Amino acid sequence: MSALTRHHVSVTGRHDAPPLVLVHGFGCDQHMWRYVAPAFEDSHRVVLMDLIGAGGGDLSGYDSERYSELEGYAADITAVVRELDLHGAVLVGHSVSAMLVAMTQLEEPERVAGLVMVAPSPRYIDEPGYTGGFGEEDVDELLDSLAGNYLGWSSAMAPAIMGNSERPELGEELTESFCRMDPAVARRFATATFRSDSRDLLPRIGVPTLVLQCTDDVIAPVAVGEYVAEQVPDGRLVMLEATGHCPNLSAPEATTRAIASFLDDLDVVPA
């Protein structure tokens, strides 16, 4: 099966324009970009995909060992980039996918011209000299709760992750998205995500990188966004006056403006 079929890849916009690849985070799917992607269809070749187990992503080839580490998911993004033969691409990764697109850039430096990291975190667990936002025990409890009752965990966690309690429909949408995932797949992806440590990748990123950080995010606090932007050699931080971990849904206009400004500065010409 081709990577394009396996990951339910959708390509819109101008096929002679620079590619813009949008990758969703844990528990989401490409539908989460519906307020952002259309803004770039006049100027870019817009590529959307579903990670395995999400949305239209095909689970028939799922391998529990491969997807016990984030590198398995990153390899899928790389496969899509290669199959489409993209050059001069800007990869946009939300949440954990911010680290996945970084891995793809390091694997295919000649194909990737820039990165956008939306609410990224290279390490969720606090350590001396580093603030990740969670203690070790917090992560243990989170993963135990997910393993014990995934639907209940989703109903409790999704609204907290989304924030914006005055707009409950956003939390409800994320809850429904979480609940569509196979619990075993979700548990393995969550474990790979929350126990990961990708900080060593950041100084190796070789392209301009935009870090979009929400001012109030329970998953990735401001200190994490600042850290990521400082560690990437050509990193730039833009603070979004937004609440929650999913500004592509809760603050799509601000998210779109920030990405558009970054793309204008890059001025990428397709190969």
TrEMBL record:
AB hydrolase-1 domain residues: 20-256
Q: Which SUPFAM superfamilies match?
A: alpha/beta-Hydrolases
**Gene3D superfamilies, per database record:** alpha/beta hydrolase (3.40.50.1820)
Q: Which domain of life is it from?
A: Bacteria
- Per the UniProt record, which residue ranges are transmembrane? none
User: Sorted alphabetically, which InterPro entries does this protein's record hold?
Assistant: AB_hydrolase_1, AB_hydrolase_fold
* GO MF: catalytic activity
Per the record, the similarity remark reads: Belongs to the AB hydrolase superfamily.
Name of the protein described by the UniProt record: Sigma-B regulation protein RsbQ
Which organism is this entry from? Answer: Nocardioides marinisabuli
What's the source species' lineage?
A: Bacteria, Bacillati, Actinomycetota, Actinomycetes, Propionibacteriales
